[in-house]
Amino acid sequence: MFFPRLRRQAKWMFLFLALVFALGFVGFGVGAGGIGLGNVFQGAGDSGIPSISAAEKRISENPDDAAAFRDLATAHQAAGDTDEAIAALENFVRIRPRNLDGLRELAALYLAKTSEAQREASEANLRASYAVPGAYVEPITLAGQPLEPDVISSVVGERLARAVNAALGEAQAASSKAVDMYRRIAAVQPRDPNTQLELAQAAQNAGDSATAISAYERFLKIAPDDPTAPDVERILIQLRQAQSAAAPSG
Question: What is the predicted pLDDT for the residue at 156?
Answer without folding.
Answer: 63
